[in-house]
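ok here's the first one, seq then struct tokens
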Amino acid sequence: DLMLNPALDRCLVVGAEEADWLLCDAYRRWHLLRDAPPIQPFQEPPRGMLLSEGAGALLLDRAGPIKIETIDAGCNFWRQNEAALCVEKVFAALAPTDDDLVIASANGTFVDRAERAAILRHCPAAVVYAPKAALGEGVGAGSIWQVIAAAQALHTGALPSSARALESNDVRVRSSGETHCSARRAVVSVCGLNQQVAGLALSL
């Protein structure tokens, strides 16, 4: 919205998270954490996440190689089993195809099931990359990290190798040793533990 103002040329967007003891205790009480690595996205049953902390920043400009094609503000959910409906609405708005790259929020929790359902419905053959498998669940910084991963993949034509191969029977998860990325469009699916879902599509 800020970039719709013709007086602005650039906008710096920053996200940060500090994992304090209260946050850790709350997520453990809600049975969302696991005791040790690795985070294993899209596993059944979900095996839990690891909290992380840090920050990320995006500089939006009117000119550049990566275009923000579509933004969907998504919706809120009140119960974990309602997350899939919100994710489905975001995917329907962003209209991903099998040729796109999907940057998922999958972190080893109920989020994975919600995203799996939408991916299988809209783009079952798309390559899926879940940066939280390597970075952990950064909460407030996590969505910024996802957008950075999407932009870098489009810009460089490559994805980071995962620390280990990710096993999934029905989602084409990017695994170790596979770094080439030929997609010209990336869909970022953001499903947060704060009960909010949103997404955007970037393109070359």
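and now the second one, same deal
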Amino acid sequence: LLQYQFDRIFPGCRLLDIHEYLLEQGISLDNIDNDTQYLYHEPCHTPMKTHNSIKVASELLGKPVQLSDRCCGEAGTFAVNRPDIATQVRFRKQAELQQGIHDLTGKKVASKGSVKLLTSCPACQQGLSRYEADTGLETDYIIVEMMKNRAGDGWEEKFIETINRGGIERVLL
């Protein structure tokens, strides 16, 4: 999208990831009421181009978020086109995830809800979900984790109902 030259069509426009936009709007989870700790997977092709992703995640969630380094092995079609190499990449990522869990909890496997893995990329989210059985990590997008904490269980249905009635600004802000 950055190569589409939107600024020539819409002078002064900026292209922001939803998480960066929410940060700039001052949206965050104040006094988050859970004991969950967070790891953040930085996508190889991160959509966050304006702000540091760890800063964004930490400020949106209102608590520290730790970077989990290394490629997840998904990389768009990488896992499909070169499964031999992607498997090795995933092996290294799993070791990194287990180290992150250990740093946060002292254990190699996360107990349910103790540590969650967040990302901002759909392909990465799909790839990272493959680690759950071995690491105990649930994987989600930052915005989804925010909504779960802000609106509670069943937030998706409430969101759709509100959208259908009109008024997305009331849902997000």
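notes on #2: The two ends are 26 Å apart (CA to CA). The chain has a mean pLDDT of 86.
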